[in-house]
Amino acid sequence: MERFYLTTAIDYVNGAPHIGHAYEKIITDIIHRHYKQRCDNTFFLTGTDEHGIKIQKTAKENGTTPKEMCDKNSSYFKEAWQLLDIDYDRFIRTTDEDHKKIVQGIFEKLLKQGDIYKHSYKGLYCSGCECFLNAKDLDENGNCPIHGKKPDEISEENYFFKLSKYKDAIIKHIKENPDFIKPAFRANEVINQLQDIEDISVSRSITNVNWGIPVLSDPEQIIYVWIDALSNYITALGYNVDGNHGELFKKFWPVDVHVIGKDILKFHSIYWIAILMALNVELPKSIYAHGWIMINKDKMSKSIGNVISPKSVMDAFELKEADALRYFMAITAQNGRDGNYSDEEFKEKVNADLANNFGNLLNRTLNMSVKYFDGTILNEHINESELSNKVQETIKKVKSAFDEYDVASAGNSIIELADCANKYINDNAPWTLAKEGDMEKCGKVLYTILDTMAALSILIKPFCPNIAQKVAEQLKINTDLKLDEIKTGLLKEGKLISKEEIKPVFLRLDSEFADKK
Is 99 a catalytic residue? Predict the structure, then answer.
């Protein structure tokens, strides 16, 4: 691969980041780190959505300006992503000056070519969704099904985008490109939504919403979320309506994948695609819609009081590094489905996989290497085995899973390889071989395990970068290797490690020493 570009949804800054926000950023970061192991040029975009009526109202209630509130709240998201080792290339804010200017240019282009028109409208507006709803979209009580509140009835003269004009083209594109919407079971959902699609409001009157980007040719109108927020995916790269695009746009567009929540799939697979079609911009290669994270089997809700932050989890378990939370979040939800977080499941899973399965295997193998061979690697111990073949099979499985953005399956394949390594060492019992004096075979078994751990450290690096680095330091290998460079013989001949240098790479969460080093 020559290049890879991926994005997350940009988070609305009306509140603090919670574990649902964190889930999306973690799996996207893992995808990004994986593809850095397959190509040299990658770009990862995330950020915050900072305009609209909710920001305007909340700022007023708190006695501050919208901009001051956005500055404060967006910093909370940046701090959370730093805590979770989210390695993005740009954090875009819709209040960024370059973004605002490009958005204004996009609006004027669409207006000039007739894709935007002015229209008086009376409709039901949900401030939570930031969109107008039809009566058929509401539940039996007349409430928004997502936010559980009755929408406001609003009458305005706004600008509308001719979404219906692109209906047939979008349906055709989805049907002709089976990899466009992932997981594939979401495609029919989008096609069904397209059947009754109508033109959408893309501006609000300044008398009702004044916190946003003004329409250049009509300052009494504010550009609404769809053209403002969705366009961040191209404004961040330096898109220009006159065709004089920035170097990043030339290099990285079209995006390889938009990673978003299932609740905003409609806006990305219909609204955004229609806007790009109207702009005559090449369409995204794929859109991946993930599920939600439940808390103790319940949907997160402020009213229930079960909204938790990633920092609160790390504080509760006194974790100084995010690897355990990153790993658990990555595998808790199967491809596109909902996942669940509970303290008990978190503790049980990371102890089993990272401490017992992964960390303990490395620790006991290194100790045997020191005990039987003074921690020295000999070339004659390099051994092509069934476990070596399993490493290559796992690399193929991991690549295949990431091709579908199925992060959970990739993680499970990596842990399955650790399972195989544990079985291999138990079946071959190097401690028995040493006792019987068969040091040649004992050395080959230990080398095979350590060589497999070297491969595992590279494979697990996107999930657990800190654990991977600790493994690499003890095995004296380079974890920056590409996946295609993983082969038997990663360990170099010579002194590998002394007993004093052997350290646990992940301590059990119930250990009195866990992460208190």
Answer: no
370-395: average pLDDT: 94
Overall average pLDDT of the 368-386 stretch:
93
| Torsion angles phi and psi, residue 182, rounded to 5 | -125, 145
Quick one: 494 exposed, middle or buried, by C-beta within 10 A (0-12, 13-18, 19+)?
Answer: exposed
Region for residue 169 given its phi and psi (left: phi exceeds 0; alpha: psi -120 to 50; beta: otherwise): alpha
Among residues 32, 51, 126, 311, which one is catalytic? 126
Q: Does 70 participate in catalysis according to the annotation?
A: no
420 is a catalytic site residue = no
60 is catalytic: no
Active site residue 299: yes
Contact 424, 449 (CB under 8 A): yes
* Phi, psi for residue 396 in degrees, rounded to 5: -65, -40
Do the Cβ atoms of 241 and 105 come closer than 8 Å? Answer: yes
- Separation CA 229–CA 352 (nearest Å): 41
Q: Looking at 36, 51, 100, 144, which residue is catalytic?
A: 144
Q: Considering 250, 299, 435, 495, which one is annotated as catalytic?
A: 299
- The gap between the terminal CA atoms of the chain, to the nearest Å, is 40
User: Does residue 18 have an active-site annotation?
Assistant: yes
The span from the CA of 305 to the CA of 308, in Å, is 9
* Residue 514: both structure tokens together: 């866990």
Q: Is 147 a catalytic residue?
A: yes
Active-site residue, selected from the candidate residues 147, 150, 250, 482: 147
Query: What is the strand order of the sheet 203-205 is part of?
Result: 203-205, 218-223, 213-215
Q: Give the separation between CA 74 and CA 95, rounded to whole angstroms.
A: 11
Known active-site residue 21: yes
Torsion angle (degrees, nearest 10) of CA 152, 121, 210, 104: 130
Cα separations in angstroms, 81 against 19, 87, 199, 279, 503 = 11, 8, 36, 32, 28
The residue to which tokens 């702009």 are assigned: 279
pTM for the model stands at 0.93
Instruction: Dump pLDDT digits (tens) for 265-324.
Output: 999 999 999 999 999 999 999 999 999 999 998 888 776 778 899 999 999 999 999 999
Q: Which listed residue (136, 297, 302, 517) is catalytic?
A: 302
CA 126/CA 104 separation, integer angstroms? 25
- For the chain, state the CA radius of gyration: 26
